[in-house]
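Lecture 7 notes: from sequence to structure.
We start with the chain below.
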Amino acid sequence: MTLTRDFTETVNARIQQDSTFAIALLNEAISLFLNGEPETARLILRELVNATVGFEELANQTSKPSKSFHRMLSAFM
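Predicted structure tokens for the same chain:
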């Protein structure tokens, strides 16, 4: 389990420090959606939200419940 946690922390730090990396992840998520891999795309988008605005702020900015975003970007739908 520790390896997964370290990986997540590493990715989040890189997203916060490197906007080019964040854009590349967003482009990858779009490509995955378009190529029929929505589960993986949602997980990438979840990491992007966590590393940038966070679910609560995203909910505030969109006037939608944060739980909806959590469900929308979960691995299972």
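Points to note: DSSP finds five helices and no strands in the chain. Residues 27 and 54 are 19 Å apart (CA to CA).
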